[in-house]
Amino acid sequence: MARTDPHSYFDDSQPRTRHLGLELEVDFEEHRLEGWAMLDLGEPSEGPLDLDTKDLEIYSVEGEGGEPIPFDRGEEEPILGKRLRIHLPEGTRRVTIEYVTSPEAIGLQWLDPAQTEGKRHPFVFTHFQPIHARTCMPCQDSPRARVVYRAAITVPSDLTAVMSAGSAGKGPGDRPGTTTYLFDMPHAIPTYLIALAVGNLDSRALSPRSRVWAEPETVEAAEHEFAGIEDMITRAEELFGPYEWDRYDMLVLPPSFPYGGMENPRLTFLTPTLLAGDRSLVDVVAHELAHSWTGNLVTNASVDHFWLNEGATVWAERRIVEALHGQDAAALGWAIGEKALQAEFKRFGADAAVTRLRNDLKGTDPDDVFSSIPYEKGARFMALLERTAGRERFDAFIRSYIERFRFTSITTEEFMNFVNQELPGAADQVGAQEWLYEPGMPKNAPVFRSPQLEALDNLADGFADGERPTAAQIESWSPAEMLVYLQRLPRPLDEEACRWLDKNLELTERGNYEILVEWLTIAAASDYEPVFERVREVLLRVGRMKYLRPLYKALGATPRTRALAREVYAAASPGYHELSRRVSEAVMDKYDA
Ligand code: BES
Ligand code: ZN
């Protein structure tokens, strides 16, 4: 064969890295990781070995005895980066590459003490999905090329290092004032699941197999928020089979973390915006936990099959929510997802190519087309298969799917072959061809309703004619119900309506970011001045892209909100992750159009 992934130089006719060893020192002054990557090929090999790198400076490549091994570099390509071709002499089993990362590496975010909760120590974290591992280590950076890894990470002694791996102890580093943390990941994972964070970290045990890591200032809030994790893992195991990764730990990052969560194996990364105080946002944890089966055990073969990761996981997340909190709670999740889906069809156009589940993203930067479509359209496709096959058969199907493909990375077509084998006729019955290969939403998309949803719909429909929820209704709402209600309100609203909502729903001071941001989006789009300070505060603190996009977009409403957006962005953007900057700028670029 040859290259199998449009976003990697990985060539499956070449030797494979089976084991990756990392020995890196974390330099907070220079914002660099420096050290070695050792690639074990598992057997004596020879010939070219093509690796992905981006913004890496390569010092040397050596064989097992320290002898130099010849290599050359390809041209710098804007999305892929630079190929590193190593010319393996006959019999090579292992190569050691000495290198240093760039301060601009997109896979790393370096935070000043001021950007942390404690304000006294710096922080750094990685985010590699989908193609950023190559900015931190030379590797075959395609999900088909799974590796086990070990790492020795040297950090200033007042900080703690954690990774998506088992802890294998620690000891003094070579230089005084440093500590070296050892890690061992014995399960074969795609490189995008390698993860590292270093900062002033503390932790609390939540169950024999789970603990939460956070800065000391937030660790107790985190302990309280995620106390139910063992119950969630147990429910998930009942649905999808045994949890295979030994521990399920979580890390709460500083607020600039650009995502809600990232399913790094053994150590889910989470945004601190989940710390609402009332456990109302743990569906994100259900999602990242569900990836332990869909995504981490069975992985998409490339970004073109991303829906296999996310669509299946959103479906699984809602099954976990249903198992824990019942059908009505799950229906609210589907309704919130439906809103996100509609917004994306509006953003891209209903028949844009990226609205297909099976994609063809060669030449496209995957971060530029990241959207809720593979999530929500993918989840609806799974739910339709479930309804068609019947729940009992489909649950058995999912378990045998995971069993059959565990620790492998597969394409949409491999998935469908398995569907055809296990659920004969189902693909035709649901019109799988259209779902997978055509843009837009098929007409037979499953609909999720509940009496609660009907009531919220009707109530919101009447808003323009003056209908308002009663105090008793508001009192009875769960946070998810309040969110659904807000999402259904018309916008812009007049000042009177904004004032009424804020007063009666107590919105501006909410600690639940989903509700808060939905409200601020309504209010900003309505040019409602009393919230401007709060908008500024949120945009200065939080880098989660899911919130930046709607907020900056809503601020496009009037000249003064646009001025506010530009002023806040100038102050906030140095603290944003590069991905967050890109998203915000893309939205603000449209202000003048
Ligand atoms: N794996 C994703 C995050 C991701 C995907 C990052 C692709 C970069 C590229 C993670 O599991 C995720 O989907 N997070 C969501 C939360 C979820 C509840 C939908 C998020 O960050 O909002
Ligand atoms: Zn996900």
The ligands found in this model are: ligand BES, zinc ion
CATH 2nd-level architecture of the largest domain? Sandwich
Which regions are unreliable across 5 or more consecutive residues at pLDDT < 50?
Answer: none
- Radius of gyration from the CA trace? 24 Å
Report mean pLDDT, rounded to a whole number: 98
What best-fitting shape do the alpha-carbon axes yield? globular
Number of helices: 19
Structure write-up:
- The protein has 593 residues and is an alpha+beta fold.
- The protein folds into four domains: 175 residues, Immunoglobulin-like, CATH 2.60.40.1730; 92 residues, Zincin-like (2-Layer Sandwich), CATH 3.30.2010; 152 residues, Neutral Protease Domain 2 (Neutral Protease, domain 2, Orthogonal Bundle), CATH 1.10.390; 98 residues, Peptidase M1, leukotriene A4 hydrolase/aminopeptidase C-terminal domain (Serine Threonine Protein Phosphatase 5, Tetratricopeptide repeat, Alpha Horseshoe), CATH 1.25.40.
- Helix content is 37%, strand content 23%.
- The chain contains 19 helices and 19 strands.
- Strands 1, 2, 3, 4, 5, 8, 10 and 11 form an eight-stranded mixed sheet that branches.
- A hairpin with a 2-residue loop joins strand 13 and strand 14.
- It is globular.
- The model has no long low-confidence stretch (mean pLDDT 98).
- The structure holds ligand BES and zinc ion (ZN).
- Zinc ion binds next to helix 4.
